[in-house]
Amino acid sequence: MKTTPYDKLEDIQDALAKCMKCGNCMAVCPVYQTEKQEAAYARGKLSIAEAVLKGELDLKDEDVQEKLFNCLICTSCMLACPCGVDVCKIMLSLRAAMARETGLHPIKKMIFWALKNQPLFNAAMKTGASLQWMGLRKLPDNAGYEPYFTMGLPMKRIFPGLAKKPFRDQAPALIKAKNRKMTVALFPGCGYNYILPRVAWDAVEVLKENDVEIAIPKDQHCCGIAIFAHGDIESARELARKNIDVMEKTGADYIVTVCGSCGESWQHGFRELLSEDPVYGPKVDHWKSRAHDLSTFLTKVIDYKKPEGRVEATVTYQDPCHLKKVLKVFAEPRAILKAIPGVTLKEMTKPDVCCGSGGSYTITHPETSIKIAGRKMADIRKTGADMVITGCPGCMMQLAEGITKSGQELVVAHYISLLARSYREARKTKIDSKERLWR
Amino acid sequence: MLDTTIINHLEEIVGKDNVLTKKADLLTYSYDATADMPGQLPDVVVMPSTTAEVQKIVLLAKEKKLAIYPRGAGTNLSGGTIPLKKGIVLSFQKMDKILEVDPANLTATVQAGVIIQALSDAVATYGLIYPPDPGTVTTATMGGSVAECAGGLRGLKYGVTKHYIMGMEVVLASGEIFCFGGKTVKNVTGYDFASLFVGSEGTLGIITEIMVKLIPPPKYRKTMLATFKRLEDAGNTVTGIIEAYVIPATLEIMDKMTIQTVENYAKVGLPRDAEALLLIEVDGGAQQVVDSEAEAVLKVIKENNGEVKIAQSDAERDQLLTARRSALPALAQLSPTTVLEDATVPRNRISEMLEAVQKIAEKYQLKIGTFGHAGDGNLHPTILADARNREEMERVHKAVDEIFAAALKLGGTLSGEHGIGMAKMKYLKDELGESGLNLMRSVKEALDPDYMLNPGKMVPIRESKEGK
Q1: What's B220-314's CATH class?
Q2: Which end of chain A, N or C, is more open, meaning fewer C-beta atoms within 10 Å of its C-beta?
């Protein structure tokens, strides 16, 4: 197999040479906005990368490692870049080189090994759900869990509780539709499988309402984006291949994701990992064009059933970074929200500024992450909305924590949950009116 | 590495978190946005948040004979913030408070680290604008833009940074704090210190606070895009518009190379066979005035064989502006190294300057796209190269020499808005002469006898002072 920059750092030279140090990325970097230091944003990190390649800085240097991990991979800088520098490719290639040279943090290694072993991981997460009180302190009012001990990683965050039973353990492998239009394979991702299964069920409900048959293969794996982001390239590749195999077996026409980052993996990340793989490369391309965020699937692939049930809510929409900036999906969720009778959408200023979640960034850089969320909370407060809607479990958890910490009374929800509720309301009204007729 | 007592002292002044000494951090303050410049690691980066802290740092640096480099966002294009002689980089990124907006006196007072866009957003809530708009508005700091006298697209009608400075607070090399100016429109007390410090590139004093003038925005505008088959026609249109007594807010030019590159990049529907393009916007407080100015502009374009598109809506205006906004990104995508110059000529010599640049490009077999602010004669010849190719870079350096010589020959200047810094210091004598250089030195040494502030920029260090 031909190498990629993720296997051989030197291959990143040309991508790196494109940066002209204009500093435009400074204006959009959430980490820079918080820390106000040159090394916080892309220009500084790319300079560090150049120095590493020239041998002026060492990847084994802890300061260098710290700088290169202080990035949310939100891709905001890439959109602001006049030179088209692929900052993500460069950052992830450096992290991969770092993992090769110095090895992964032992805890990361353990987690990533477990992620590759789906039944084991599933069992561990279920055990975690029943035993989470041991390591986490439950906060009042079901606000989540706070860790008792730190496992060597800074953990000053509030974690939502794990679901007692993961979504895929609850769901059948195939949910048939009465007037089947087509079959999709639902990829709920870890967030909705283990932590917020309600959202996955709402996705199922919406698809069923639209006569779409749903395959939910039990042995699908984590999409691997966090593993990729931490430089364990071979594990990330293994997960990508396994997921492709599993989805292939379903015979589905499309893959539907409900998480911006899982969508990123199917539409972009897997390609980055497997572009030179003679067997899986073409398979990635096949699925790349057949994987859609649920909002795109509903509005562009099928003509979804228009919501008729009333949902009284003033909502604001937070754009998940990967959904908006990589998948370019931002109009579709808004179109769905606006189509629901009773829903008023009030935009916050800069809805596409990162909320500071960045997946594992919340754990590795809690202080910066919380400060970024604080700015987002202020923007949300100004809208006067009573619900924050988004399309990614990472954002949902980050926003929920921000809300708890800022003492606001707001509900965080996935856009699909509002649509599901509208469909439910419509069914209820129909039953009600039928009952009235009988009387 | 600096003496630990100095580091400890700096930490006492600004707090431990605001003193950076790790190599990975120092490296990120060793460059700015200027291409093809040597980098240099500072000894330490210090991030003050008050004027009192700046004063203490200056006194310490003076005692320990360390150089100080005031730095905003490091977006300048003249090597102005590179810490050539090591020492202290004084980063203003955390000194970013908007202190006051006074709509009655039409002023705003800011700390030096405030981003230009943050000031614009703050005054917009009062229905006012701060007109200077360099390409870096979203990143550049007020302190940096004042020290560099930044320009922008609206320079022709609304002037540049120096026209908006009402007063300042400066920490001098002696460690004294000096305030001048204020909210009065008229003020002739003492020397004109604003002129002294605006554009001084951090070599005469450290700007800590700035009071700027604000204006109400124009209510109406009309935007046009004209293309020309002959460069000369575009040049004559520029002068023709001014001779018709119309001062457009925007009067931008792009040459053939830039047009083609932009069209390949942004697909905005520009004619690939055009030799030049002008983006023109007239604005004002009354619809009638704007309409009649637009009519006069259209007449001049027609007389000079131009083809014109007029924006009928904000969306169409955005489309036309996209062409100009895409110029630098489109050119920058073509090659890894982008050398952006800002030689400036009287506006009636624009087409001659464009031709001269095209000849220089041919002579040295380089790709040069030129665009810029035609209305004020401020051109940006943009040389596309690869810094890793040494032979090509030699040709680039020769071409740059000739571009500056051409600008001076046409009665122009080395720099319209980017500054001298270290990038253009060697050409300084060509424009100012020996007497000018001597005067620069006298001014510098009167305010900063030990060359402590941003040494090696703008004014060559006197040999007897070198190494001090």
Answers
A1: alpha beta
A2: C
pTM for the model stands at 0.91
Q: What is the pLDDT of residues A299-354, one digit of tens each?
A: 999 999 999 999 999 999 999 999 999 999 999 999 999 999 999 999 999 999 99
- Which chain A residues are closer than 8 Å to B30 by Cβ? 47
Cα(B83)–Cα(B30) distance, integer angstroms: 6
**Which string of b and e fits B230-249 if b means at least 16 CB within 10 Å?**
ebbbbbbbbbbbbeeebebb
pLDDT per residue as tens digits for the range A217-230: 999 999 999 999 99
- For chain B, residues classed under CATH 3.30.465.10 are 98-213
Domains of chain A and CATH, by start: 9-102 (1.10.1060.10), 313-425 (3.40.50.1860)
CATH fold group of domain B4-91? 3.30.43
Interatomic CA distance for residues A30 and A21, integer angstroms: 18
Q: What are the tens digits of pLDDT across the range A166-188?
A: 999 999 999 998 888 899 999 99
Q: For residue B24, give how far its alpha carbon lies from the nearest alpha carbon of chain A (Å).
A: 6
Residues of B in contact with A64 (CB under 8 A): 24
Closest residue of chain B to A42, computed from CA coordinates: B28
CA distance B212 to chain A (A): 22
Searching chain B, which residue's CA lies closest to the CA of residue A64?
B24
Chain A touched by B338 (CB under 8 Å): yes
For domain B98-213, give the fold.
3.30.465
Q: Model confidence over B164-210: pLDDT tens digits?
A: 999 999 999 999 999 999 999 999 999 999 999 999 999 999 999 99
Find chain B residues with C-beta within 8 A of A44's C-beta: 28
Three-class SS of chain A: CCCCCCCCHHHHHHHHHCCCCCCHHHHHCHHHHHHCCHHHCHHHHHHHHHHHHHCCCCCCCHHHHHHHHCCCCCCHHHHHCCCCCCHHHHHHHHHHHHHHHHCCCHHHHHHHHHHHCHHHHHHHHHHHHHHHHHHEEECHHHCCEEECCCCCCCCCCCECCCCCCCHHHHCCCEECCCCCCEEEEEECHHHHHHHCHHHHHHHHHHHHHCCEEEECCCCCCCCCHHHHHCCCHHHHHHHHHHHHHHHHHHCCCEEEECCHHHHHHHHHHHHHHHCCCCCHHHHHHHHHCCEEEHHHHHHHHCCCCCCCCCCCEEEEECCCHHHHHHCCCCHHHHHHHHHCCCEEECCCCCCCCCCCCCCCHHHHCHHHHHHHHHHHHHHHHHHCCCEEEECCHHHHHHHHHHHHHHCCCCEEEEHHHHHHHHHHHHHHHHHHHHHHHHC
What is the location of CATH 3.30.43.10 in chain B? 4-91
Among partner residues B28, B138, B387, which is closest to A27 by beta-carbon distance? B138
Residue B30: strand, helix, or coil = coil
- Count the residues in chain B: 468
Quick check: B93 and A61 CB within 8 A?
no
